[in-house]
Amino acid sequence: MIIEHVTYKALPNTSTDDLQQANEAINTFLKRQPGFIYRSNSQDEGLYYDVAYWASEEAAKGASEAFMQSEEGQRLIALTEEGSVSMRHMLVLTDAMQCETADAAS
């Protein structure tokens, strides 16, 4: 399993609504990609973080290439500060998951 970690800054004056809509479109796009497992998007002090899990490095790289060619990808790229993007692919060494809700645990 591979973790894809991407950080970027939004262009000045980019609205939260524009970013949310672009990221919702990215979620839909990613769900169509072979080997996609999970994605989260967060923000802290002006820096955005995307974390995605992929079944393999080939799946992660293939999705990255498809992203660059896609309408959804271009929409997010248009909101991103040039030169601020950093992307890494890392092999998962260990993982754990808790899938129960608080109601189910009581």
Automatic annotation (TrEMBL):
InterPro entries according to UniProt: Dimeric_a/b-barrel (IPR011008)
Annotated protein name in UniProt: ABM domain-containing protein
Native organism taxonomy: Bacteria, Pseudomonadati, Pseudomonadota, Gammaproteobacteria, Cellvibrionales
